[in-house]
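Posting this for the archive.
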Amino acid sequence: MAEHLGDRLARLRRIADLTQEALAERSHVSVDVIKKLEQRRKHSARLPTLHDLAQGLGVELTALLGDPPGVPSTGEADPPQLVAVRRAIMPPLFAPLPEPTNTERLTPSLLRREISDAWTIYHNAEFGRLMDVLPGIIADARFAAAIGNSEERAVGQSALGKSLQLAGHLAIRLGKVDLALSALERAMNAAGDSSDPLLSAMISNSVAWNYQRQNRLGDAENLAVYAADQVEREHHDSAEGVRVWGGLVMSAATSAARSGDYDKAREMMTTAENATKKLAALPPPADGKMVSVFSRSSVRIERVRLAVQHERPEEALDLAKGMRLSADTPPSWRTWLLLDVARAHTDLGNAEGAVNALTRLRQIAPGWMRHHTLAVAIVTDLWEGGARPVGLRRLAEFLGVAN
């Protein structure tokens, strides 16, 4: 089972040579919360609280959160799969470009389809499988960016930028934020030489997410707002432009909320949700996964998440009530929605509602749920509580929580 949040907090506090009282003063988090976490009387904390604790400890947020779903920490060297991804992102100096494994994949349409399929794998949280295929995709895109006339190279640079952006997302999911930033910096360089006018803005959104994981919330918000303003000026009349702009506004709102300004975040999110109405009147992009997951569904899901994280469970459930998810909502977003709904029900003392949401979550994403620290924390809280509704034992046994 993954390391408990309280154990991780205590370990990082000792490394920082801080007492509980000193950490409370530096992080502006109450001593009572810190004690309950370290004594395992409290199994989870709100993201704004975690950001404050990370700030007080002087560590990145990822150090406090631990490894993401499906990537347990063993203390051993990186596995060969990850080494191959690193090598694809940062090829050896002065080494010649590797020959493509299949020259057919160098055609723009097939290469684009291959990258789109890889993004589908990513959204399905199949990170091991993605590590297997991504190095070859990056190598092929890098080769395509180096051959042909200027127009052909610009198309190749687009593919290279998008594949390196995906590598950055994967690295973030694996908890490798520095590797992610290296991938995204290279993606941004490729975007500057590409034929895609929106690619730099899309990658800016990814960089902002990386900044969030590093607890650089001000940097993340400023970058997202800057990129959104540029997109709004130049690409406000296309579905691609609206979706990229909307994704950036959502990112800025998330950073604002985690910085403690929930009202500002809610205003941004409402603006973004209103803008989704424009999408109905515009021709849809050829492949939404290659642009942004921005839609009315994604905005509402993120609003639910922010409400839960800021101790507004009634607002979260009201936002989630009757929600109809669009067909292009990625599975990962659907799973997060169910987890947030379960957390909201738990906060309101509705154990039955929480179990119902978690049971649905187990049905659609059992592997994701088994490794997710928040899912384990919620089930632990429910199991140690007074009421144990029907279905809770099965969840507790599945997650290794039952005694």
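The chain has 21 helices and no strands. The longest helix spans residues 150-173.
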